[in-house]
């Protein structure tokens, strides 16, 4: 009772307590990382298995049993077969062509209208915004039949106009651009107009360069959407020469028994390459864009 | 010309700024008119007509709706769509919320980004590739990777995609794999908006991690959770690509993978019964509309920004 613990003893106890907290924290972090790593494995294994099996010449007729990751007979002949059976390069080129066209059309429309609604505040701009936002609620599956018949009547089916024209209505992009331009001061436009620039020049030379971040976000969103789409290409395209990569791949494997496992896996791997490579380089940026647009939505 | 101009009253109906606005919005307005309003109206008219591959046909009143609403396959497709939709949304939101909380608590930002990247990866993969990949993984024979795995625990091989008892659940599993990352990164982004002092105050009061998570994080993210549930359900109503690739146009096995959009596709483009297909699409739209209205109301109520 009468002995008061000396300073050094308190310190010692504190150090021990601190160390034990640190230790539980460390253990907690290791457990946390362990769980997440296990989950990552589940995410990655399907890819890994597919990519490795796609090099397995023995798996060309049947999936091997017992399942193996490492190819027994390593060969790139599966890829040669895939390329000779499916015009992969042609399909990838078609998909790129459609993606670029859709991106150019939809982003121009979205940026221009978003800018006009935000900064020009013309008569009826609110109506345009509300109209755009309400069309976002109309699912494509709802309008696909009349849209198909419309393009059929215009004789534009089986051409890429069937992709470029509907891209004019990128209402979500209008909304994203509008909220982005809202944050840029309106005084820039007034200064430009006073200096004698036309409205279009003001938009092109002053606001557009400032919109690069949202532009990049929209490019990513649209590229992923167009590249991965199947339903509209399935309806709109008829000549195999014009197929997108997804449609080509779907048509080749559209068979319950999926013949030639490792050849199909090779083709699927090739179809994924452009997207996966983009993802590897721009991973953080893509994740951020999706998170942003998801929250905005 | 000069005389005419002076005759114009000073206050014009439209200023040059207005005109510029219309020119700038013209592409969007053409798009809305041509690819949203027009098809909606055309589909509505078509749903009362007997048409095959054309925009006009014989007027048949509500018989298309009667046909769809009394078609057992349609109700089967609605049931399947909701079954897979609700299951994947509920499991998906719970799992991704837990996952996001875990990733958010990883101390090193390097690892955090690594996990974000890995879990999000399947999300950039097309549904076509995912479906092909899972057809192999879920191969009904013993050589399928998943069957081999459960075989190690003494289970018999399961016909994941070929047995109607399991097919819908297998689609849900595949969807979870593909979509988990999307919800997760949105949850992570919104977790950063939870004020840190709330946690600190709770810590001082002696709350453990579970209490902090349950009493602070969960209520704070409630609007986002609600939002994900409804957006996820709406998207699930449109399921087509994966079931078409795996189950074909009949939604095999035994119609267990027949979804509403597959039903529309089948009637519209295979049987050329576009009137029936548009009627079905309007009925589906009604389902989606109700869900959207619920979303908007809950969104306005919580008003998170």
UniProtKB/TrEMBL annotation, chain A:
Domain ABC transmembrane type-1: from-to ranges: 92-282
Subcellular location per the Swiss-Prot or TrEMBL entry: Cell membrane
Protein name per UniProt: Carbohydrate ABC transporter permease
Superkingdom of this protein's organism: Bacteria
Protein keywords: Cell membrane, Membrane, Transmembrane, Transmembrane helix, Transport
InterPro entries, A to Z: MetI-like, MetI-like_sf
Record organism: Aquibacillus salsiterrae
Keyword check for Membrane: yes
Topology versus the membrane: Multi-pass membrane protein
Transmembrane segment boundaries: 26-52, 91-115, 127-149, 161-181, 202-227, 260-282
GO BP: any one term: transmembrane transport
Similarity section: Belongs to the binding-protein-dependent transport system permease family.
One GO CC term on file: plasma membrane
CDD domains: TM_PBP2
Main location: membrane
Pfam families linked: BPD_transp_1
TrEMBL record, chain B:
ABC transmembrane type-1 domain location: 78-295
Gene3D superfamilies: MetI-like (1.10.3720.10)
Gene Ontology BP terms: transmembrane transport
Sorted UniProt keywords: Cell membrane, Membrane, Transmembrane, Transmembrane helix, Transport
Subcellular location(s) of the protein: Cell membrane
GO terms for cellular component: plasma membrane
Primary subcellular site in the record, as a coarse category: membrane
Keyword Membrane annotated: yes
Stored SUPFAM superfamilies: MetI-like (SSF161098)
Membrane-topology descriptor: Multi-pass membrane protein
This protein's record includes keyword Calcium: no
TM spans (from-to): 21-46, 82-106, 118-138, 144-162, 169-193, 213-231, 243-264, 276-297
InterPro entries: ABC_transporter_permease (IPR051393), MetI-like (IPR000515), MetI-like_sf (IPR035906)
Domain of life: Bacteria
Pfam families: BPD_transp_1
Family: Belongs to the binding-protein-dependent transport system permease family.
Protein name as it appears in the record: Sugar ABC transporter permease
Lineage: Bacteria, Bacillati, Bacillota, Bacilli, Bacillales
